[in-house]
Amino acid sequence: MAKQQLNQGKRWYVLHTYSGYEENVARNLRQRIESMDMEDKIFDIMIPTETKIKIKNGKRKTVREKIFPGYVMVNMIVTDDSWYVVRNTPNVTGFIGAGNIPTPISEKEIQELQKRMGVEEPKYKIDVNIDTPVRIVDGPFKDYEGKIAEIDEARGKVKVLISIFGRETPVELDFLQIKKI
Predict the structure, then answer these.
(1) Strand partners of residue 80
(2) Where are the beta strands (DSSP E) in 7-156?
């Protein structure tokens, strides 16, 4: 099966798991590596996650989310026995590859993934300009419509002019509390 791959040496491979079982697979696999003496063939397990900003009840929360739900990365040398140990870990449905032969991920892809995982402060991506019409989607002014008056990209805030009792009133909001109309 994996004999033609032995010359590949230590590479990263992608495991397909049941969604929601990624941590469970990583834990089981670590135990199996230890109990089956595979430390010389299976080196590292990674569940790619990234930091995202969510707004809940008007409060900004930073959460870690899986980049690829249902997938776990494994750094290993593929041999018949290492393939067997990984493949038969509970909740692993298979390797990503052609037939029974796992396909390694390029070093460049792994580096980009690790870079993405290492970014602690998510960048604000806001696609509005001054005077862009927006709808407020969260907070005390939810469902109000207005226009962008100011953008503070560094703080992730915008000032929106909304009409309250017939007067234009500026309100400061988080980027995540508005949607372009």
Answers:
(1) none
(2) 10-17, 42-46, 49-56, 59-66, 71-77, 92-95, 97-98, 101-102, 104-105, 133-136, 145-152
pLDDT tens digits, residue range 58-88?
Answer: 677 888 899 999 999 999 999 999 999 999 9
Using the Cα atoms of residue 174, residue 178, residue 179 and residue 181 in order, give the sign of their dihedral: negative
Q: Which residue bears the tokens 């508005």? A: 178
Pairing mode of beta strands 59-66, 49-56: antiparallel
d(CA 89, CA 28): 7
CA distance 181 to 179: 6
pLDDT (tens digit per residue) in 19-53: 899 999 999 999 999 999 999 999 999 999 988 88
| Rounded Cα gap, residues 105 and 11, in angstroms | 7
Tell me what percent of the chain is helix, strand and coil, each rounded to the nearest 5.
25, 45, 35
* DSSP β-bridge partners for residue 52: 63
Backbone torsion region of residue 9, taken as left when φ is above 0, otherwise alpha when ψ lies between -120 and 50, otherwise beta: left
How much is the pLDDT for 93? 95
Tell me the HSE value of 94 on the side-chain side, using a 13 A CA sphere: 8
